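Working notes for the structural subgroup meeting. M.R. asked for a predicted model of this chain before we commit to crystallization trials. I am recording the input and output together here so anyone reviewing the notebook later can reproduce the run.

Input as submitted:
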Amino acid sequence: MKFFGEFRGQLVDPKGRLTIPKSLRGGLGEPQIFLQTYAPGILWVFPQSTLDDEVDRLKAAIDTHLELEDFYRTLHPVSLDSQGRLLIPSHIRESVASGDKVHLIGAGQYIKLDFQSTDDKVHFAKGFRDKVDQSEQRRKAIDS
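Returned structure, recorded in token form:
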């Protein structure tokens, strides 16, 4: 399942619950889903199947132990409640996901939760290009 679309200004309630829009929720239908801390103000959400694929890619890398350790360190198992809400753990809300509004972005294999200020669109675009470049370099290194 690929995730598509953008949902701006979604609210995180005082208990740390975020309602995932129905169009994105379908791809998270697996019993276990994961939050990954990616960068300040950025979280990724993905299903178990995506995690399994990523671990397989990392296992093929040369320095497996350190990369896997770094990867697993950033993961947090979560689930959706019956109303399609994701509970963001308090320690993540305090350290990574500050604020009560978030942009949800369907990004192919995962959903990006962007808690950063929306006023700095140039910074966001540059940061996005930088992350894509880093991701491509990492994938090429793993594939070779």
